[in-house]
Every structure is written in C-alpha cells, then in structure tokens.
Amino acid sequence: MIDLILLNIATLGIFVILSLSLNLIAGYTGLLSLCHAAFYGVGAYTTAILMTKAHFTFLPSLIISGFIAAFFGFLIGLPNLRLRGDYLAIATLGFSEIVKNIFLNWDSLTGGPKGISEIPPPSIFGIKFSAYNKFQYLILIWIFVAITYFAIKRLTQSRFGRALEAIREDEVATLAMGIDVTKYKVFSFIIGAFFAGIAGSLFSVFIKVVVPNSFDFMLSIIILCMVVLGGMGNNLGAVLGATIIYFASELPKIFGISSLIPPQFNQIIFGLILVLMMIYRPQGIIPRKKIDYETNIVKEMKLRNKK
Amino acid sequence: MILLYTKGLRKVFGGLVAVNNVDFEVEKNSITGLIGPNGAGKTTLFNNITGMDIPTAGDVFFKGKIITGLAPYKITRLGIARTFQNIRLFKDMTVLENVMIGRHFKGTHPYLTKNSFINAILGYIYVKREEKDIYNNSMKWLDFFNLKDFANEKAKNLPYGKQRELEIARALATEPELLFLDEPAAGMNPKETEDLMNTIKRIKELGVTIVLIEHDMKLVMNICDKITVLNYGKKIASGTPKEIQNNPEVIEAYLGREDE
Fold first, then answer.
1. Of A145, A119, A116, nearest in space to A131 by CA
2. Cβ(A37)–Cβ(A72) below 8 Å
3. With 80 as the cut, is the pLDDT of residue A69 above it?
4. Residue B79: what are its φ and ψ, rounded to 5°?
5. What's this model's pTM, rounded to 2 decimal places?
6. Cα gap A133→A112, rounded to integer Å
7. Are strands B31-35 and B178-182 parallel, antiparallel or unpaired?
8. For A127-158, how does the pLDDT look when each residue is reduced to its tens digit (9 = 90+)?
9. Chain A: nearest CA to B155, how far in angstroms?
C-alpha cells in the first residue's frame, strides 16, 4: 500500500513537470501546442537509448535528453513562425504523430512496438537507486519538480515572461513594442520542450520501460487539460491541475475498487470535470495572478534601508 | 532638418493601389498631420513606414538610412513608435505592465547578456535591479499621463479615453524620436479631444516628433505644423494648415466637385 502511494506521488511529479512546462508554452505564450507528449517521449527514448546502448550514466543522459527535446522544440518552433492559433495546433499534432511513428518503426534504435526495456537504475553521486525503493525515486523526481518550478517562476516573473504574456495578448502590438516575437515564441517552445525532455528522462529510469504507446496524442491532451483546469498562465495552477486530474484518474486504483467500476467510468468523470469547469470557471481554478510590482519594489527598498 | 521621408512609396493589394508613389516628409520636432477621406491609404502608409507591411516599391528613409522592409521590432528599436487605429492594448495585463512592455528592450542591465531567459533564471540580483529600473521608468510615463491611480487596473477596464492615452504612454515608453498616432481622437468626446490636444503638445515639448492621422479637423488645424493630404493613395497636397484649408483640390476631395 505504502509503495502504491509513493509510486503515485512520484508519477504525479512527472506530470507536474509536464504541466508546468506546457504552461509556459500554452498558458503564458498562448501557443496551443498538442505535441508535449512528443517532447516527453523524445526525452524518455533518449535516456533509454543512451543508458542501454551507449552505457551512459544517468545524469549526463538526463541533461542530453533535455537538450535533444529542446532541439525538437526548436524544430517545431520554426514552422510556428508562420502559423497561428488553430493552424499551429494542427501542425504540432502532426509533429507528435511523426515522433510517435518514428518510435514505432525505427526498430534498430527504438525497438519498435516492443520499445526498450531493462533500463538500468540510475546512480547519482555514488547513490545507487534500487528498484524496490520507491522513496529514492520520489525524492529524485520531486527535486526536479522544484527545479522546474523555480526556473519557470523566475522566467515568468522577469521581462522575458512579461514579453511572452504580451505575445499572448496581442502579437502585432508586441512587435510594435520592439520585441522580437518570433524569437520569444521559439524560445518558449525550446524551454518548454527542455523540461518535458527532463520529465521523460525521469520517467524512463523510473518505469524502466519505454514503449511508443506511452507517448500518445491523448497524453498531450491530458497535459493540456491539466494546464487549462488549473489556470492558464499560473504556475501554481498548473501544479494543482496536474494533481487533480492525475488523482481523478488514479483514485479507483488507489482504493482498490478498479475491478468494481469499469475503466470508462474514469473518463466520464474526467470529461464531466472539464465541461463543468469550462462553464463555470473558464479561467481555471487559480487564474493568472497580478504581480504586485509596487510592494515588491517597496519591500526591497525597506530591506536596503535596514542594512 | 528632415527626420523621415519616403521616396515613391507604393503599396498594391491585389488590383488595388492603396498607396501610389507617395513622397512623404516629416520635419524634426514638428507635428505633421496626415489627412484624407476614408480609404485614402493613410493607415497603409503608416503600416509601410513602421514595417507592419512591406511596400511594393519605393523606400523609407529614417535619419538618412533606408529602413524599408525591416522587421517592425527593429524599426521600433531605431526610434519609431506607433499607436493603432483600433486600440491594441494588452487587455488582460495591468496598466503598469502595458507600459513595462514598452520598456522591455530598454531595460537591459549593462551586466546582463542579451538572452533575457538565461538571466531570468541565473541572474537573480541583476534581474531585480533591471525590474526596478523598468518599474521606475514606467511609473514616470504613467505620471506623465495621469494614469498612476490606475496602475494596477486591468487595461481593458479603463474608460475609452484613458485606453487611448495608455496606448500613447506605452509607445512613448520605448523612448522614440518619432511617434506615429493613428486617429488618436477617434471616438473621444470634445472634452477628451481637448485634453488630448494638450497632451500631444506636451509630448512635442519632450522633443518627440509626431505624425498623426486624424479626422477631427479642429484638432488637426490647431496643432499641426504641416499637413499632408492623401486621396485614393496619392498625395494631393502638403503644406501649412492655412494653405491646406484653401487648397481647391483638398476641398474637392472632401466635399466633392461643384457640378455644373
């Protein structure tokens, strides 16, 4: 039982990283991206390949996974120079299908439909992870959740984040303010993809198996739902959204009643939450927060005076 | 001294010649009016100068250098700011944030690299300083327009006249040498127009050159040093307000020809 809870909290951490990073792309920059599962998959497969075939240790493969996913983010960011709104969503959808099909069909590298199994447990700074000790993984994953959260929080509270929000509000006006909209859009994709790649890498060492079906298009939709439910453009919202949706779909398993209710029942509840949410609170549970620059500045001045 | 001029600027949309070989000049430290009936190509001319559109032919010169076809953000960085005919504020952001966006590319701290995202994550102390700098400058502009009380209000909640002012404040925050105003008085009542007139004069005193499109003749004739008239994409007249008022071609364009 305790193992089940630890397992769920650890998996939740991976989803939190995913929804935080998608929040940067979809919530802050307002780019409707449906290929987050692809970035996640690229990260997972990179780590799996590096650790099983090239015998890399965990940390380097984690970082390489992040950068390769970021490179894919750059690739999808390029056509996005020309596309807006719905068209971008379709293009990213296409991209996610391409990635999934590569996983499925490049047998020599990705192992085809069987995927890659027996990914060795990670060891960091001499600490060897044991497959039976879920707690170690939980700590590892939540350390990365914290890193992601603070990195994205810093980003969104600087002029970089403000520029992203301006792009969401009005692209033409943002251009007229001297901001290179294209560059910022691509960077938002790159950074979002980087963290999704990190999440993928953590996933692959945690679950030890990667198969193409884990990185389905439906997963992108679920991550998007987490962001929308929690509140677009709010990092805490993304965390909350991920928590709610993850547990809503896992509750029957946790309580051991999944044999009593049909699995479709989950999806009905899940759909119902979304419909109700869109009707009664379209801005999400925690809507975008206004940054109080005034008190921030005043606070700092007081601190300085004390010194 | 001529700050900006266009040479044979031409813009064609399909079969329609929106701007037809226009030579448009802007004197430094002046207020230039751009008038003409609806559909005369005034906004198209603005868009072509500020890079929102790429001209079919002809060139734009700013401070003696060609800026034709540069990306709009680069043109803004050179010192040309603009407002839009249908207000384009960042509606869900606060009034203060709107102006802070205008400070975006000015706010770089000397110790920071150009890539703001790396700084944002790693250069915490510098970013703090940078933000403070942006904040103080933005407040200065809000003060200039008496918008300080609205600083934490969402832009979309402002009354119409204030939204127009905020858009100008935001454009000025980029510290332009040349400011393009596209129908700043549209939809304003006489009192608001009066205030706007004073505001524009105050902006001119800051040393900013202003070009404005306007249909309100009282405003145009009162504050403009020079006026250019467009009709069907062609420049039909240019001169002081007095000259324009008595120009038969302009009168014809506005009121129609006296038929026999």
1. A119
2. no
3. yes
4. 115, 30
5. 0.88
6. 30
7. unpaired
8. 777 767 778 888 889 999 999 999 998 888 88
9. 11
- pLDDT-derived band at A15, boundaries 50, 70, 90: very high
Angle ∠(A189,A193,A199) on CA atoms, nearest 5: 155
Cβ count within 10 A of residue B148: 14
Tell me, what amino acid is at B151?
A
The span from the CA of A164 to the CA of A24, in Å, is 9
At residue A43, the pLDDT reads 93
- Distance (Å, rounded) from C-alpha A289 to C-alpha B12? 45
CB B141, CB B169: distance < 8 Å: yes
- Is the pLDDT score of A106 beyond 70? yes
d(CA B94, CA B152): 5
Reduced to 3 states (helix: H, G, I; strand: E, B; else coil), residue B161 is: helix
Torsion angles phi and psi, residue A260, rounded to 5: -80, -40
Packing angle between helix A217-230 and helix A235-254, nearest 10 degrees?
120
Query: Looking at the partner chain, which of B71, B82, B104 has a beta carbon nearest the beta carbon of A159?
Result: B104
| pLDDT-based confidence at residue A200 (cuts at 50, 70, 90) | very high
Q: In this predicted structure, what is the pLDDT of residue A120?
A: 82
The minimal CB distance from B102 to the residues A177, A290, A300 is found for A177
What ipTM was assigned to the predicted interfaces of this complex? 0.86
Element (H, E) at B13: strand B2-13
Q: What string of DSSP letters covers A44-113?
A: HHHHHHHHHTS---HHHHHHHHHHHHHHHHHHHHTGGGT--HHHHHHHHHHHHHHHHHHHHH-HHHH-GG
Question: For residue B107, what pLDDT is reported?
Answer: 62
**Residue B248 one-letter amino acid:** P
Instruction: Give B136's pLDDT tier (boundaries 50, 70, 90).
Output: confident
- B218 pLDDT band, cuts 50/70/90, is confident
Q: Which residues of A are less than 8 Å from B130 in CB distance?
A: 158-159
Comparing CB atoms, the residue among B92, B103, B116 nearest residue A158 is B116
- Percentage of chain B modeled with pLDDT above 70: 93
Q: Are A288 and B94 a contacting pair at CB < 8 A? A: no
Q: Give the pLDDT score at A45.
A: 93
Q: How far apart are CA A166 and CA B12, in angstroms?
A: 31
Q: Cα separation of A7 and A284, whole Å?
A: 27
Enumerate chain A positions whose Cβ falls within 8 A of a Cβ in B: 151, 154-155, 157-163, 165-166, 169-170, 172-181, 187, 191, 288, 290-294, 296-297, 300
Rounded Cα distance between A14 and B38, Å, is: 57
Q: What is the DSSP string of A102-146?
A: HHHH-HHHH-GGG-B--PPPPEETTEEP-TT-HHHHHHHHHHHHH
Residues 93-152 of B with CB under 8 A from A: 93-94, 96-97, 100-105, 107, 116-117, 119-121, 124, 127-128, 130-132, 134-136, 151-152
- Cα separation, B36 vs B42, in Å, equals 7
